[in-house]
Design goal:
Structural class: alpha+beta
Subcellular location: Mitochondrion inner membrane
Oligomer: single chain
Strand content: 15-25%
GO molecular function, one term: serine-type endopeptidase activity
Number of domains: 2
Shape: globular
Largest sheet: 8 strands, antiparallel
Number of helices: 14
Helix content: 25-40%
Enzyme class: hydrolase
Keywords: Hydrolase, Membrane, Mitochondrion, Mitochondrion inner membrane
Organism: Deinandra increscens subsp. villosa
CATH topology of the largest domain: Rossmann fold
Distance between the termini: 69 Å
Bound molecules: zinc ion
Length: 410
């Protein structure tokens, strides 16, 4: 190769790399401006939602662009009095709403009422005693809203979603059919504890795919039962894997007496093994009767990884739902996502929330993992499976951070 050719080669290589870097920054810019970006929140006005000290949160910008931000949402906006400054407040009313507010809560109970003008929102801090907000600067033009706060990244102990006000509907509860009829009578605190059955194919499915759901349900005191259809004996270490599942369940706060692991010739772990769905349906019928199960959660018809055993479990549950005479039972499936979303880690939370929000009549719900470290710990209990690529999977898989459940209609 001549000197000139060598140089040409190096220059071409350098240019290619620079294009790659430029592309990366373009993508970052587009993400920041149009989709999602981090922000720091501080000060007393949003106590108790946010602490006085710096908290790192994620903002999503799509709701604002689509005009979907509304009462209850925590938003970051440009201060109407100093556009170089951004403040964090909660939307109390949108255009056309009548707002009644306490003018000066520290000194009197005097209230005032007004109608929010077109194209404006009314914002207040959660700590009305120490917040400079619409009560002082009036309704805010919608255009000043920068993003909706939806996820707290730091402090790590408080990692998790920032929903609407605490009394609004808990996503885990939305799964239960009788939720709406009960809430009219009870407050959220006295809701009945329910029996949930998670049906999986192999030991480790629970920690790898379903841990956001399990964490949400157990933290609210619901009884989670696990029915694992095989001991995962593809490599001949079924008995070891069985023990690992008990151990992982304990980490996930599921009592081991509520974990049933089948070892049946018709349900053996492996690609190409076809499982008997009508037998599975019969087993479910008995299990549901014995444990007074209210709700079943399982794989969808793709089964996250496309594994045939996962898909057969889905078919078995679907069959049960068609066959059963128990009309008051509901089944939900874990929505399989495409490969990009699957490996986008916590970023997928945004896509999941967005798709669940846009789903028709509450047939899809998004459960965020409130304790990803617990999920990681649970997966590490599956020692025989705990190899480097699974460690990577658990860290980067969106299923460690969020589960979207869709109702199985039969
Ligand atoms: Zn599996």
């Amino acid at each position: 190769m001549s000197l000139f050719q060598q140089w040409a080669f190096i220059v071409k290589e350098a240019l290619d790399k620079s294009f790659l870097v430029a592309k990366f920054f373009c993508a970052l810019h587009v993400t920041n401006t149009y989709l999602c970006s981090p922000a720091l929140v501080q000060g007393p006005s949003m106590l108790p939602t946010f602490n006085l000290t710096n908290e790192l949160v994620l903002l999503e910008r799509i709701s604002i662009r689509n005009g979907k931000a509304g009462p209850g949402d925590v938003v970051v906006l440009r201060s109407p009095e100093n556009p170089r400054k951004c403040v964090t407040k909660r939307i109390i009313g949108k255009e056309g709403d009548n707002i009644t507010y306490i003018v000066d809560p520290k000194n009197s109970d005097k209230t005032e009422t007004l109608t929010v003008p077109k194209g404006h929102v009314w914002v207040q801090g959660d700590n009305i005693y120490n917040s400079y907000d619409s009560r002082h600067f009036g309704p805010v033009p919608y255009g000043l809203l920068q993003g909706k706060v939806f996820w707290r990244i730091w402090p790590a102990g408080a990692f998790g979603s920032i929903g609407r006000r605490p009394e609004t509907v808990d996503p885990a509860l939305k799964l239960f059919r009788s939720y709406s009829s009960r809430t009219s009578r009870d407050n959220a605190g006295s809701l009945q504890k329910r029996n949930v059955l998670l049906v999986i194919a192999h030991p480790d499915d629970e920690s790898m795919f379903f841990s956001p759901t399990i964490n949400q349900l157990t933290s609210r005191g619901h009884n989670v039962h696990i029915l694992c259809m095989s001991i995962g004996n593809a490599d001949g270490i079924g008995n070891v894997r069985k023990e690992e599942l008990y151990s992982a369940s304990a980490t996930l706060k599921v009592p081991i007496q509520q974990v049933t692991i089948m070892d049946h010739p018709d349900f053996q772990d492996g690609f190409g093994k076809i499982w008997n769905t009508s037998l599975l349906s019969n087993i479910l019928e008995k299990k549901i009767h014995d444990d007074a199960i209210d709700i079943i959660i399982t794989f969808d018809n793709y089964g996250v990884s496309g594994h045939c055993n996962h898909r057969d479990v889905h078919l078995g549950v679907q069959r049960f739902m068609l066959d059963t005479s128990q009309r008051d039972i509901e089944a939900w499936e874990l929505v399989s996502t495409n490969i990009i979303r699957k490996y986008s880690g916590p970023v997928d939370i945004w896509f999941s929330l967005w798709s669940a929000q846009n789903s028709l009549n509450g047939q899809m719900h998004c459960l965020l993992n409130e304790n990803p470290r617990r999920s990681y710990a649970a997966m590490s209990r599956h020692l025989s499976q705990w190899v480097w690529f699974r460690k990577l999977f658990v860290s980067f898989s969106s299923y460690t951070y969020v589960n979207t459940l869709r109702k199985i209609n039969t």
